[in-house]
From TrEMBL:
Presence of the UniProt keyword Transferase in the record: yes
Keywords assigned: Glycosyltransferase, Transferase
Signal peptide: none
UniProt protein name: Glycosyl transferase family 1
A Pfam family this chain is assigned to: Glyco_transf_4
Amino acid sequence: MRREDARMAEAPLRMVQFTKSFYFGGTEVQVVELLRGLPSSYRVQVCVLDAVGPLMEPIRKMGITPEEFSLKGSLASPNTLTQVLRMARWLKQERVELVHVHDFYATVLAVPAAKLAGAKVIVGRLDLAHWHGKARRKLLQGLTHMADHVVGNAEAIRRMLIQEEGIPAEKISVIPNGLDLARFKQRMHEGLKAPLPDTGGAPVVVHVANMNHPVKRQEDLLRALATVRRAGPALHAFLVGDGPRRPELEALAGTLGVADRVHFLKHRADVPAIYAQADFGVLCSSAEGMSNAVMEGMAAGLPMVVTDVGGNPELVADGERGLVVPPLRPEALSQAFLTLLGDRELGRRMGAQARAFVERELSLTRLVRRHDELYRRVTRGG
């Protein structure tokens, strides 16, 4: 019997994808792509802590109504145990075989609930745990050890899990993020949804990241722009994203004398079209997993300037698909900008190699296939 025929003959694999919510974010986007791509041999349900966010719309268009298990405050409250027990009962009732959980808060519920229900559980570890204090990191480490398998999206995460948390190497799979290239190109060609600031034809660098946490280090980008300005070349920056740090970043741009060259675009739904207007992209985080923003910049054919943290150098490869600089070093960032401004042909070559890498290594088809293989191995041994 052919493998495809055998799959048709067996019962659908009953699984749950579990994440905190469906606001715009790299993790949430990847969950949506998985849901779109998994074959009909799955019976997939979705669990959330809070059924909110703009990505709920595509979930509902797939005919999926997420089951909500709200924490309603502190993890230390009695409600956490209530939700664990409630979820365990629900998993048994739905005869779920596998839970794939994607973030810290959902992991707190999903791992013990799956164990109580007799379901397999895969924990997604998609960053370097840099958001967490010691207590939460210890809790996450313990839950990761309890899981049946662990998925990271970068080799840097795999190394951290082995070296710092003692997770057995054979228990970890690395599956890089995937990008629906056809949809991305379509969004590029659809064009801008709103006008962009007039830069007078000057070169543009694009930075896409939230403004919620200092780890994204937009301040380093602003300082690098001030250095470039003193060196002479005109360079404008489009900062896509928003959050509570925006006012202080706007004030810093004024203090550094680059307010006329830094444009805070807030949240935008037309990021591919914005990348299409740029000369290169940047991500200057002090810690990172595998960044969707970097992947999208590469898919747009841009050379990316990134910091040497997490999965960034795995994506970019210094001197091949962009430039990699040390974190927390605005002067190194400015030198990379000046290199690309001074050699536009170099930037075009790097951008072409970046796009080819995404097409070859980071397709949505590859993402779904590797998850499908892992899910079946963990649950059914095949």
